[in-house]
Design goal:
The protein is mostly beta strands and 217 residues long. The protein contains 3 helices and 14 strands. Strands 1, 2, 3, 4, 6, 7, 8, 9, 11, 12, 13 and 14 form a 12-stranded mixed beta sheet that branches.
Length: 217
């Protein structure tokens, strides 16, 4: 009798609760570090999803709000989303509008050490794993079952710009992830000097942000 009840419980689980695994073959994640936002494009076999996501966090932002040469960092990051929405095609169904609130995922990337006293463009390989569920109505508006749940996996190249400011150190400005085949990832990190004009532009942007910050009284 107990076995029969257990079997019925398994059969009663909605199909959307089964998190099929989708391997990302292309797409990207563009981050707005200061606001904790990201624009995502995920593409795999029979799967596409694009939209805006809140709740992106990269540890390098906290470390390199101003960090010294010799600091060890990585280009990892994570989603812990309260709000996410966009459009997509999943299992042959087109969703002109789809909500994926509660989106979670992690970018893992090897550590490296910043050296020198120049602005840098840094590229590093990354791996990615996430869980995403799609809702026709935002869950915070009306609790409802998801129309799909998928596990996303992928890898590719992460790129970050770090400006070096004399007497301040390195500050991270931009961070982007591009999905692609494993063969496209660099070995193991590439640090190149940014043009002096770009470095000066990033430094000016940082100074404007600092001057615009409220002064504690």
């Amino acid at each position: 009798m107990k076995a029969a009840v257990a079997l019925l419980a398994v059969l009663a689980v909605p199909a959307a609760a089964v998190a099929d695994t989708i391997t990302m073959t292309s797409g990207s994640v563009e981050t707005e570090l200061g606001l904790g936002l990201a624009r995502v494009v995920f593409e795999g076999a029979g799967f596409s999803l694009q939209g805006g996501v809140e709740g992106f966090h990269a540890p390098i932002v906290g470390v390199c709000s101003a960090c010294e040469s010799g600091t060890t960092v990585d280009l990892g990051g994570m989603f812990s989303s309260t709000r996410a929405a966009g459009s997509g095609v999943v299992d042959g169904v087109t969703y002109p509008e789809i909500n994926f609130d509660g989106f979670t995922g992690t970018f893992s990337s090897p550590a490296f050490t910043l050296n020198g006293m120049h602005s840098l463009l840094v590229t590093q390989p990354f791996s990615f794993e996430a869980l995403v569920s799609g809702y026709l109505v935002p869950p915070f508006v009306r609790p409802t079952d998801p129309v799909f749940t998928k596990t996303l996996k992928g890898s590719g190249v992460a790129t970050a710009q770090l400006a070096f400011i004399q007497d301040v150190g390195f500050i991270v400005n931009d961070l982007r992830y591009d999905f692609g085949p494993a063969a496209a990832t660099p070995e193991p990190a590439t640090l190149t000097l940014l043009g002096s004009g770009v470095g000066a532009l990033l430094a000016a942007r940082w100074r404007r942000r600092r001057s615009a910050a409220p002064v504690a009284t």
